[in-house]
Amino acid sequence: MAKSKTSPDEMSFLDHLEELRWHLIRSTLAVVIIGIVAFVFSRFIFDVIIFGPLDMDFPTYKVFCDAATSIGMESDFCKDKVPFTIQSRTMSGQFSADIWTAIWAGIIIGFPYILFELWKFISPGLYEKERKHSKGFIFIASLLFFLGVLFGYYIVAPLSINFLGSYQVSEMVLNEFDLDNYIGLLRSAVLACGIIFELPIIIFFLTKVGLVTPEILKKYRKIALVIVLIISAVITPPDVTSQIIVAIPVLILYQVSIYISARVLKREAKKEAKRKNNHVKPS
């Protein structure tokens, strides 16, 4: 199998750095352009998206409220309004929040293009067949990332906001949260879930380079379960229900990753067997 014409073997280390620099520049420009558009529509982004989980008519609250009501339980999700307020205590607080929100919107929305630039950088180093089999990489990785973002926004963030916003050590203490703190919690939940949902892609590449096998994943399944629960505890409020809700899709992704790893090794074994057969000459 021959490498592509743009084989990295033909490039010097400085050529690689120059190539990487241009990929980074184009990715940064994409983030900036999307960020500018997001800044123009910042009122919509804040009122509808960022402050969406502050409205008790938010879909997640309605689902959990209906579920609790159906079994005769009281729930904080059935309140008329969230029991806290958002405030900005610095002169530049709202402007800074607007700028950084636009930047992060550029990173999240521009994620497929960033992946595309990454792929353009690493794909010349792959064999032609490897590039063919990996054509769906950008689409699948982007799909998983956005599924994770949606999961973080509609599940993890509302659970965290509702729990932490309702928690009081005493009725004498009012919950008045800073704008940056609220946005930080929302951003962490969304990005953490987006990255976690990339697990099958990560396992795919680790299997390709020989660092992971299905046997290893199965052997350390219990350790992985503990790690998943720890991650769930970090990105969710400290109640068992929320942690289980987050842990379930991650465990499903882990199981899918085992299947993907097995498929990769099976495909590699077939290719190796075919290569050996092609090299055996009839007597």
Q: Give the termini distance in whole angstroms.
A: 25 Å
Structural class: mainly alpha
Low-confidence stretches: 1-8
Residues in helices, as a percent range: over 70%
Strand numbers in spatial order across the main sheet: 1-2
Q: Which radius of gyration do the C-alpha atoms yield?
A: 24 Å
Largest sheet: 2 strands, parallel
Number of strands: 2
What is the element string, with H for helices and E for strands? Answer: HHHEHHHHEHHHHH
Seen as an oligomer or otherwise, the chain set is single chain
Provide the β-strand percentage band: under 5%
Can you characterise this structure?
- The relative contact order is 0.10.
- It is flat, with a radius of gyration of 24 Å.
- The two termini are 25 Å apart.
- It has twelve helices and two strands, in the order αααβααααβααααα.
- The longest helix is centred in the C-terminal third of the chain and has 40 residues, at 240-279.
- 72% of the residues lie in helices and 2% in strands.
- α1 crosses α4 (93-109) and α7 crosses α8.
- The protein has a two-stranded parallel ribbon with strand order 1-2.
- It has 283 residues and is mainly α.
- Residues 1-8 have low confidence and may be disordered.
- The chain has helices at residues 13-40, 42-50, 59-70, 93-109, 111-122, 128-133, 137-166, 179-196, 199-208, 214-219, 221-235, 240-279, and strands at residues 85-87, 176-178.
